[in-house]
Amino acid sequence: MRALDDIVVLDLSRVLAGPWCTQNLADLGATVIKVEKPGEGDDTRKWGPIYLKDPATGARADSAYYLAANRGKRSITVDMATPEGQQILRDLAAKADVVVENYKLGGLKKYGLDYDSLSKLNPRLVYCSITGFGQTGPYAPRAGYDFIIQGMGGLMSVTGERDGLPGGGPQKAGVALADVMTGLYSTIAILGALNQRHRSGRGQYIDMALLDVQVAALANQATYYLVGNEVPERMGNGHAAIVPYQSFPTSDGHVIIAVGNDGQFAKLADELGHPEWKSDPRFATNIERLHHRAEIVAAISEETKTRTIDDLIAALEKRQVPCGPINTVDRVFADPHVQARGLQKTVPHTGQGTLPSVASPLRLSESPVSYDRGPPLLGEHTDKVLAEQLGFDAAKLAELHNKGVI
C-alpha cells in the first residue's frame, strides 16, 4: 500500500507549480487524472529545447520540461469549452477527493468548475487554487510567472554578486524556485486538508499564491528585516551571518567551505598552514570574522588557490571541516553518494519503453514511492478513465470523440 492510494485527484493545472504538486501526490500513490485540451495538452509539452523523439518516426515528441513534472499521472483530453466537457469534469469532480487548478482568478467559474459550484456536488472535496497573487488583494487578477515573483518577492534582491563587483546585480535562481516551492507548499496544504476531513467530514478551499510562498521562503532574510529593520543585501556566495561560508578559488575551479563554528575555523586554519589565525583577535571568533570579512576571505583564498579541488576537499574532510564541490548536473548524477541514494530512476513510458527520471526525495518506510508509471502521452488514458470513473461504454466514447469533446 502507498500513502495516498485511496485518494483521487482531478488535476486541472498545467506548466509547473500545479503539476509539481500533483506529481508529489501521484508519487505518494494518489490516482491523478490530468485533464488536458484535446490536440494541444499542457503548454510544457512543447517547451524545449530538449525533446523526446518518436522511436518509429523520429518526430519530435514531449519535452523534457513536461517530463519533469508529470510522472505517475493519467492523461485525459476533455474540451471544457463544450457543455458536454464541462459535465464530464463536474462528474469526475463529484467522485474526486482533490481538485488542483491554476487558472486565472475566476477563470473556471464560467464553466461551473469553481469551488462553490463543485463543493455543492461534493462537500468532501478539497479544492486547491494556485495563482500568482492569490484570490484577494489588488494584484489578484494579474498573471503571475515565476521570474516576476522572484523579483517582486525579494529573492532576486538577495541573490547575485554584490553591487560594485564584477558581475554584480540581481539574479534569478537557475531553477523556477517560486513555482517548485509553491507546488511543495500546495502539497502540504492538501495533505493537511485531507487530514482535517477525517475529523470534520468536509473538504475545504485552499488559496495558494506564488508571491505568498516566495515571501515566506525568504526565511531568515525576512526576519533580519522585520526584527532589525535592516534591508538585506546581495552577498554573492557569502553568508550574512557566518564567515567563512562561501566558495573559494582553487587551482582547477572552486570549492565551497562552510565553517559553522569557531572549532571548525581552527581546523581550517591548521589545514591551510596558518595556526596563528586561531589566536588572532580579528579572526578567532565568528563575530570578529564578520567585522574583518574581507581580510580573512582574501587570506584563505591565497591558500586555497594553490590546491586542487580534490586535494583540498579530501584534506578538509579528514579534519571534519564542511566543504564540497560546485558540481555541474552531469557530475551530480555521477556522484557516488547520489548513485547510492538512487536519485536517478527508470520509469515506464508508452512511447519510449522506459525513461530516465529523478527520484522523489520522499522516503517512507511503510508506504514507499513506486515508479510504475511514467509521464503520460497526451490523452493516453481518456477512454479508460471515463469508462472506469463514469461508466461510459464504447458507443458513448465514440460519440464524444466524433464531437471533439474528448
UniProtKB/TrEMBL annotation:
Lineage, uppermost ranks: Bacteria, Pseudomonadati, Pseudomonadota, Alphaproteobacteria, Rhodospirillales
The protein's name: CoA transferase
Coiled coil feature spans: none
Organism of derivation: Ferrovibrio terrae
UniProt keyword Transferase present: yes
PANTHER family referenced in this protein's UniProt entry, alphabetically: SUCCINATE--HYDROXYMETHYLGLUTARATE COA-TRANSFERASE
UniProt keyword Transferase present: yes
UniProt keyword annotations, A-Z: Transferase
Matches recorded under InterPro entries: CoA-transferase_III_domain (IPR050483), CoA-Trfase_fam_III (IPR003673), CoA-Trfase_III_dom3_sf (IPR044855), CoA-Trfase_III_dom_1_sf (IPR023606)
GO molecular-function term, one example from the UniProt record: CoA-transferase activity
